[in-house]
Amino acid sequence: MAAGEEDETERVRRPSSKKTAKKPAKKTAGKPAGKPAGKTVKKTAGRVGGGRDDGPGSGSETPRTGRAVSAPRAMRYAAEQLKELLGRAPESVSAVKPTEDGWQAEVEVLELERVPGTTSVMATYRVMLDKEGELVAYERTRRYTRGQIDRR
Questions:
Q1: Which of 9, 91, 137, 149 is a good FRET partner for 47, with 20 to 30 A between their CA atoms?
Q2: For residues 103 and 78, what is the distance between their CA atoms, to the nearest angstrom?
Q3: Can you give the pTM of this predicted structure?
């Protein structure tokens, strides 16, 4: 750089990577700045694991509504909430059926991993959900080795 020339980069302020740049709030008539116009969204707090997963380990929250949930959502909620209580990830949901009070699901969980995998200990849990998909009760109904099949 020659004498008398200014370095333009000194005058440009760039936000650090730790801070996020804020967008200026749009002002709407009759609304305070910074408040969104339209509906107020009520957030749910204190749910199992701090949120509802869209899938195993995703950590994103699925919003809950005050209405009854569908069978696929009931399956997902049963697995997620049981995982939080047991500290073990469910392998599968083997059954789900509606009840008068909500949903009942059968969830398969790996309880003890062994080598070979066919000797690992599995468990079946019956999970009761209310109409909104909240876990209200669960119980272990069966323990078995992964390689075992049901005889009927």
A1: 91
A2: 9
A3: 0.57
